[in-house]
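Repro:
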Amino acid sequence: MRELVEVITKALVDSPDEVVVTERESEKGTIIEIKVSESDKGKVIGKQGRIAKSIRSVVKAAASREDKKVIVDILQ
């Protein structure tokens, strides 16, 4: 899952070298955290959160194939 999020995020931003995607397990499921440079946050979130919602939808669809629960967080 982490690789999928990383590929999508790096394609969206101007500074792909500054993208950091971490994955950790919790009692709620797998949590994937995305960190990007300050200037790229708007590109990852999108107008009214549309791009962030789309990323979450793609990850949710991929996770459902493996019967997993995955949460995607964009860190400030």
